[in-house]
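Give me structure tokens for this 709-residue protein.
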Amino acid sequence: MSQIERPEPLLDESLEQDRVSSAAEAAPSVSAQPIDLIAADNTVWQPRRGAPLRWLERAALAFARPINRLIGNPALNPLYHTDTIAVYLWLIVAITGLYLSFFVQFSFDGIYHSISKMESQLVAHIIRAIHRYASDAAIIVSVMHGFRLLFMGKFRGPRWLAWVTGVLMVAVLVVDGVMGYWLIWDQRAQLIMTSVTNWLGRVFGTSANFIAGIQAVEANDTSWIWIGLLLLVHIVLFGLVAFGYWLHVKRLSRPKFLPARHWLIGVGLLVFVLSAAVPLGMLPPAKLDRLPGPVSLDPLFLFFIPPEINGTANGLWLVTLAVIAGFAVIPWLPSRRKSPPPVHIDQTRCIGCTECALDCPYQAITMVPRTDGKAHKFVAQANLDLCVSCGLCVGSCGVQAISVGLLSYTALWTIIEKRVSAARQRTPTGKVTVVFTCERHAEHGAQPYLHPTESTNLDPTLEVITLPCTASAPPDLIARSLDIGATEARIVGCAPGDCARREGNIWAEGRLTRNRVPRLRRNYANAPIGTYWLPPNDFKQALRAPLTADRPTLGRMAAPLRWRNLIPALILCAILYVFSIGLNAVSYTPYAAGQARIQIVLPSPAALFAARAGQHAANYAAVPVRLSLHVDGQLLFEKDFAPGELNTGHAAALFENVPLAPGGHYISFKFESGESSGISVFDRIVDLQDRQVLLLDYAAGAARTERRH
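Here you go.
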């Protein structure tokens, strides 16, 4: 299981030869900033993250530590691969959804029966379960990936596009999941329809039009229009997410779409086996004249149904919109920390080797044809709008033509000389260990070594130098620390897959193992230089590990895959997937037994009035009219209309639910004016069953209505 990418082909550069620089190229470059400012400090990098993000990362690292101990190989911690695992799960959702769409019948009854038929077939019901459960798992893993980007501070500057598209993709995918549930046309779908109806009524006042349209397509046997529309929206939303994902990775060099082969096989098998073991089953079909009974309700997608049914959803939607908007605007929130300066390229020193352009994770450096008459064919050019100041290009430049603010080859060398000299003076044996580490380690495990005090009682032979990333230090600079008196050099970076600079640890390991240019020179191949790829809170482990010729540490990122490490990792993935399955089993009872209701649905009260009043409608033009509902002589609903409002057709639509106890009731629904006996719409005794819904609409009571004047 190799984690090191093979080097890309370079222009006029042989991978089998060490670079031989001219005297001019080897001379230290002049830093764009005074180096005495950083030579007096312990670090050359001040991270942008504030205390809240460091606390979040500290909590995340504490959570991940026992997982790393259990697995025994941080490279296999699934938390470090949430990006590609999420994409893999969404790909599974897309493929299974495409398969299921081939068997959909376009009508309310048809789609329900087609899905019911799928449940009776082994392959189809497994695929349906995979589609459902993998959707939940994908949402969870996507949110976990976003949380990792948050505490790493990977959302500001040029990264805003990836962050904002990620937030919006999750929001759209939740809506898309709701569309998928709605398609089935079971009692769960009926609750979604009721929730949407209530929401439309509060926001746009169109509840009556919406529910009347649903009832019309059911009565007229044209429900294929509605099912087709739902399926189209379901597909279009997923296509919109695919476009969002393209934007999400647009600014990345070498974006990773799918996880490594062991994740593909292992997660794929888990998804299949667990989905086959827990079939979804079916809820009763939706019936517009019945209240739904207890249902299983996925809170990840259908969280809005209980408050909408209970009439308490306004606060929920305000909080939901605030959360989405809040996360979306995070890249532009003010920060006390200054933005790090972008890359600076001294084009007079650049020899056009392309190494910096190849190593840049964010496409911030490109090679352009040279126009200054020098022999080299190309020259590096920076796009400051895309630079995130990761510093990887400083470590990739063998001719010292690149700096990132105060970070440059010259500045690093000044610090190394000063720190090694000071360490040799304070240690009787003269032994000095120089440790190069990244800013994440500096914020956590290495923090005591950067600001030592008498109480910390640390090893005086240690000198810890912080970099933006371990790949920010050129390999020959690390080797030169041994030439000026360091006994050994250790490079301590993030675990495989966990690098905040995406590929920094991979590039650093590849250069030191001579698998990537610029490479450690051959004469340092057996030098006491070690690499340690650990979580940021395990920094001390790198200091305790012995570094001898018979126990080399280089190349550990490409450690072989072992079942004893992979099995615990897959068990953790299985636990998350089982949790996703459990979300689909959450029980919810929207309406208790022993209740019924009357539902008034009038998109056009004026049309109903005109149909019932007939030629007598003009008699009511000059007087106010009241539409009332009496049950057993008790007034339960009324709506007043101004004089002539019904005659002109300007009356607003009506939608109302009136709860009622089951049993026999005398129901009177009519237009009234003054002392007139009124215009009856519905007038009869009805025996309401438990959970029955009596619909009072345009056609209510048409066959048995008596008109009285």
